[in-house]
Automatic annotation (TrEMBL):
Name assigned to this protein: CDP-diacylglycerol--glycerol-3-phosphate 3-phosphatidyltransferase
Source species: Reyranella aquatilis
MF terms (GO), sorted A to Z: CDP-diacylglycerol-glycerol-3-phosphate 3-phosphatidyltransferase activity
Catalysed reaction, written as an equation: a CDP-1,2-diacyl-sn-glycerol + sn-glycerol 3-phosphate = a 1,2-diacyl-sn-glycero-3-phospho-(1'-sn-glycero-3'-phosphate) + CMP + H(+)
Transmembrane intervals: 6-26, 33-53, 73-100, 156-173
Length: 191
């Protein structure tokens, strides 16, 4: 079923993205709080959509397709905003690039492995990485509207998330490389 509760929660995450961005660009302290609140609400729906899908047996192809896209769009939009406004500047931009590059890598691996009918389950460490990443981004979104130390804590957490990103990305890549090393007939998508 296309419009079940888990899928609606996933879609709400995508709908929240322009609202998070719009609030972030308003020049008011309360707008940073609202941007952070919307981001946190959207991030929390990621847990709830999976919970409800499993609990009420509403796992769908649409949901399995859209859920990781919604996550990546939300994170990418927030990181681009934080880099653009200078919250993540200098060397700290590298943390954002590591996170974005890993997301693209894992998406490509999942697509490749899906063609081979091989699943790439989410590891426990990847779930921790996501949690740290979401807390870091939330802290950076509210930033100095809360307190100066909140921005500093967000920067420390984004680097922890980047380190976890490298570890989990390597684990996923190692799994994917095992399947790539096997002899396979060439396909039309090969470059």
């Amino acid at each position: 079923m296309l419009f079940n509760l888990p899928n609606m929660l996933t879609l709400s995450r995508i709908v929240a993205i322009p609202l998070v961005v719009a609030c972030f660009w308003l020049d008011r302290g309360w707008a940073q709080w609202l941007s952070m609140g919307l981001f946190v609400a959207a991030a929390v729906t990621d847990w709830f959509d999976g919970y409800f899908a499993r609990r009420y047996h509403q796992i769908s192809r649409f949901g399995r397709f859209l859920d990781p896209i919604a996550d990546k769009l939300l994170v990418a939009a927030a990181l681009v905003m934080l880099v653009h406004n200078g919250t993540l500047a200098g060397l700290n931009v590298l943390a954002a690039l590591i996170i974005l590059a890993r997301e693209i890598l894992v998406s490509g691996l999942r697509e490749f492995l899906a063609e081979l009918r091989v699943g790439l389950p989410v590891s426990a460490l990847a779930k921790w990485k996501t949690a740290v990443q979401m807390v870091a981004i939330a802290a950076l979104l509210v930033g100095d509207a809360a307190a100066h130390w909140v921005t500093q804590a967000g920067i420390v957490l984004i680097w922890i998330a980047a380190a976890l990103t490298l570890i989990t990305g390597y684990d996923y890549l190692r799994t994917g490389l095992r399947h790539m090393a096997e002899d396979a007939p060439p396909t039309g998508g090969q470059k």
